[in-house]
Design goal:
The complex is a heterodimer.
Chain A lengths: L1 H16 L18 E6 L4 E3 L3 E3 L1 E9 L5 E6 L5 E8 L4 E8 L2 E7 L8 E8 L8 H33 L3 H17 L1 H5 L5 H4 L12 H4 L3 H11 L4 H20 L7 H19 L11 H26 L1 H19 L18 H18 L2 H6 L1
Parallel strand pairs in A: 1-4, 3-9
Antiparallel strand pairs in A: 1-2, 4-7, 5-6, 5-8, 8-9
Helix pairs in contact in A: 2-3, 2-8, 2-10, 3-7, 3-10, 7-8, 9-10, 9-12, 10-11, 11-12
Chain B lengths: L7 H5 L7 H9 L41 E9 L4 H19 L32 E6 L1 H6 L30 E7 L2 H15 L3 E12 L28 H7 L15 E10 L1 H5 L3 H8 L28 H5 L10 E2 L2 E7 L5 E11 L6 H7 L9 E11 L12 H4 L4
Antiparallel strand pairs in B: 1-3, 1-4, 2-3, 4-7, 5-8, 5-9, 6-8, 7-8
Helix pairs in contact in B: 3-5
The chains are: A alpha+beta, B alpha+beta.
Subcellular location (chain B): Cell envelope
GO molecular function (chain B): ferrochelatase activity; heme binding; metal ion binding; peroxidase activity
Organism (chain B): Streptomyces antibioticus
């Protein structure tokens, strides 16, 4: 019990202890050359001058010898960004610095600024590297990729929505509204971890802070939802808000890769998604004008299930009974949700104002039945 | 026989004790309640002491136990169809109840566990005394249907008929099972229900629940008779927890009653009775007293001076509540009442959503509540009350020891 707790805490400490620092003072006893790794990037290769370095200050001297614009990263084992340099044009040179502790890292070049990049290992020695479970690192990396994919897939859908608003096409905007939110709802805890994006894009009228004026300070999806469904008209302000939404979502898309994600935060994120359902969607508060709550509901469950599936191999070793229960309750909730859509390939769900009190209670009970064991997942992966 | 305020023991003297002399002696010595009887190691714990009530015994605690000040009652529906899983839940619930009634936290406690995991216990009862917490479990008719146990369903557990004036809300009625939590501290009672509900998630769901305060009946006649929200003393003639004979006769299911698994159990009828207290409060004192058949200050029956004087029913109006509810008007039918007052905010029309959460234990629902309630069809009180919730449960016998569990006699193969 005690040991398990310590290892969980140290793992978290390692993950959060590192930040990119630029322009830091170098150690006097080290020749600066020892601390520089040359990175030569082409369209198909990523050459690094060293595969090992002692802990402390490190500098990457990057040259792009390819024809495509590239990016270079130092990554944690779970793909979190230690430091990065974007927009390195063909034929240009860039430098980037960081402080690194002992552990296993990777240097990645991303020609064309897309994909997982070309990777080189970088071992940092000295001090004690915390023992890490490579399966959990892989789970976090996969989840980070998923979060990025959701953001990438959301932007075109959000643009369709925004264009319809800007064209003043009420019906097309209504149709595009719920699909534009799915990727966001699936990965909401990651987006919320940035703190500043969520209040811009996903705040409800009741979520405005004191002193905020709904007329001028309320932005994002739900403000537009009110215009479309309740006011039934699109104003010039709404058209500005549509542009603002795309700006804010692009910001989210650019930052998802840097989110702090740990196995524990993944597990808790899954639980948080169910909390979102329990407090907002089941009550019909989230989509009070459009009544598209069940679309969000399904997306929240999908996101939670993604986290769970990635953590399952480790969780199963530590708590097989919990995994059995979670499999059962995820299946039960998904089956129940499927009652509310004509076919399981579409995200067209019953309008929530047509869902009666008894059915809402049934949904709420199914959410509780899943969320209660899900709250034990973090402990099952932190053991 | 001359009676005084503290005449409880002298009435009990006639029933099942070693002899009238002993009881009268006790009364003479100041009317002490806690007279030790064979098989009992001590009297009931005192309300003020925050003590624990024994969880194990031939009968479930929370029936004959001296009535505590507070109630949290919950009715559940079973969502699992897996009988083995439900039995596991009953065992888990028994373990948790054993701990909570002793004033302990459930599972690994409310703190000190893994930081990544939510604590087993919700924590709001930390540092509070056991507060005479009792937890009493019952099985509704629908439970027998769900698990294919119709053959074991007691005949005495009927589906309640419709009574005159019923205005039942389905969302506040029925249930596959119930848990009655009574304690002197409301936080202890709520903590108990909350933790059982949490343990039950995925297997059972709360169908409805009710908070109650200000016990409206007492099973300790020497204590002051409590008053209901109409301002009248309630439960003057109630069965006392020490009246073994009356308990055997009217409350506990006997061996010959059947089914065998119910021996030592009882049947509970729960009724949420809304009071139209605003109109009641505008009713003249004379009318109020006529409706009840007792006076408001002392609680004495019509024509009598003292609360505990024997009622003379014919002196009361034909539709007086006490007259119609009295055992003599119902072929001797007697209920052990254990109800509580409630106020659940207001009803949107500026009226208090208040009334009596009526709980009655009996040996047979047909001979008990049904008989009395049918007789109350003409009750003058009906103008001021409305039955809005209703449920009936078989209360299995007590949990005997550490290895026993709630409902074992019904669910285990050998019983």
């Amino acid at each position: 019990m005690r040991a398990a707790r310590l290892s969980a805490v140290t793992a978290v400490a390692v993950v959060s202890a590192l930040t990119a620092v630029t322009g830091c003072t170098e150690k006097s006893d080290a020749k600066s050359g020892d601390r520089v790794i040359t990175v030569t990037a082409t369209d198909s290769e990523c050459e690094t001058s060293a595969k090992e370095i002692s802990a402390g200050h490190v500098e990457l001297a990057i040259e792009n010898k390819g024809s495509k614009v590239t990016e270079v990263y130092i990554l944690f084992p779970d793909d979190r960004v230690v430091t990065e340099r974007e927009n390195i044009g063909p034929g240009t040179k860039q430098r980037v610095t960081a402080e690194v502790k002992a552990g296993s890292y990777q240097i990645a070049c991303k020609p064309g600024m897309k994909g997982d990049g070309i990777r080189q290992d970088l071992k940092v020695t000295g001090g004690k590297a915390a023992a890490r479970d490579p399966r959990l690192d892989a789970a976090v990396a996969a989840y980070r990729k998923y979060a990025q994919e959701q953001a990438d897939a959301t932007l075109p859908l959000a643009k369709t929505f925004a264009e319809a608003v800007k064209a003043g096409d009420l019906e097309a905007a209504k149709k595009a509204y719920a699909p534009s939110r799915i990727g966001w709802e699936r990965t909401e805890p990651v987006a919320e971890s940035f703190g500043d994006i969520d209040p811009k894009v996903d705040v409800r009228a009741d979520g405005l802070e004191e002193g905020q004026d709904p007329a001028t300070d309320w932005t994002g999806w739900h403000r537009l939802e009110k215009s479309l469904w309740q006011d039934k008209k699109i104003t010039d302000r709404d058209k500005q808000l549509a542009d603002q939404l795309i700006t804010d979502l692009t910001d989210w898309q650019n930052r998802v890769g840097k989110a702090e994600i740990t196995p524990t935060s993944m597990a808790n994120g899954a639980k948080e998604l169910l909390d979102e359902v329990a407090t907002g969607k089941v009550t019909g508060e989230e989509e009070r004008y459009s009544h598209t709550d069940l679309v969000d509901f399904k997306a929240n469950v999908e996101g939670a299930q993604k986290s769970y599936e990635l953590l399952k191999p480790v969780a199963k070793e530590n708590d097989a009974a919990l995994v059995t229960e979670l499999d059962k309750q995820f299946a039960a909730l998904n089956t129940l949700l499927d009652k509310y859509r004509p076919n399981t390939t579409s995200y067209e769900f019953t309008s929530y104002d047509k869902v009666g009190a008894a059915d809402r209670k049934e949904l709420s009970d199914a959410v509780n039945a899943l969320a209660e064991p899900l709250s034990k997942l973090a402990a099952a992966v932190a053991k | 026989m001359t009676q005084s305020q503290g005449d409880g023991p002298s009435r009990r003297a006639l029933i099942g004790w070693g002899g009238a002399g002993l009881a009268l002696g006790a009364a003479a010595a100041g009317g002490a309640v806690a007279v030790t009887r064979g098989g009992e190691d001590s009297g009931p714990p005192d309300a003020g002491a925050g003590a624990a009530v024994a969880f194990h015994g031939p009968h479930q605690a929370g029936i004959a136990t001296p009535v505590q000040d507070r109630l949290h009652f919950a009715a559940f529906d079973v969502t699992t169809t897996d009988r083995a899983e439900f039995v596991r839940l009953l065992k888990d619930w028994t373990d948790a109840a054993r701990r909570m009634t002793a004033g302990k936290a459930v599972g690994e406690g409310a703190f000190g566990g893994l930081p990544e995991a939510p604590p087993d216990d919700t924590g709001e009862a930390l540092g509070l005394k056991p507060s005479r917490l009792t937890l009493t479990v019952g099985f509704g008719p629908s439970l027998f249907r769900k698990f294919g146990l119709d053959a074991r369903r007691p005949d005495a557990l009927i589906d309640l008929p419709r009574f005159a004036g019923d205005a039942l809300d389905a969302t506040r009625s029925d249930g596959d099972l119930c848990v009655q939590a009574c304690a002197d501290d409301p936080q202890v009672a709520v903590h108990a229900i909350r933790n059982l509900a949490r343990i039950g998630m995925g297997k059972v769901v709360i169908r409805w629940s009710q908070l109650g305060f200000g016990k409206t009946s007492s099973t300790t006649p020497d204590a002051q008779t409590p008053r209901n929200l109409m301002g009248f003393k309630d439960g003057t003639r109630n069965i006392a927890g020490t009246e073994t004979g009356r308990l055997e006769k009217f409350v506990w299911v006997g061996e010959k009653d059947g089914p065998a698994w119910m021996t030592g159990g009882s049947y509970l009828v729960a009724r949420r009775i809304r009071m139209h207290i605003e109109t009641w409060d505008r009713t003249s004192l004379q009318e109020q007293e006529d409706i009840f058949g007792r006076d408001k200050g002392e609680g004495a029956p019509v024509g009598k001076a003292k609360e505990r004087d024997e009622p003379f029913l014919k002196a009361m109006l034909p539709d007086a509540h006490v007259r119609l509810a009295h055992p003599d008007s119902n072929g001797g039918a007697t209920l052990l009442r254990r109800g509580y007052s409630f106020t659940d905010g207001t009803d949107g029309l500026g009226r208090l959503e208040a009334g009596l959460f009526f709980l009655a234990y009996q040996r047979d629902v047909r001979e008990g509540f049904v008989r009395v309630q049918r007789n109350l069809a003409t009750d003058a009180l009906n103008e001021y009350i409305q039955h809005v919730g209703s449920a009936v449960f078989a209360i299995p016998p007590g949990v005997r020891d550490q290895d026993d569990w709630w409902g074992r006699t019904l669910f285990s193969e050998e019983a």
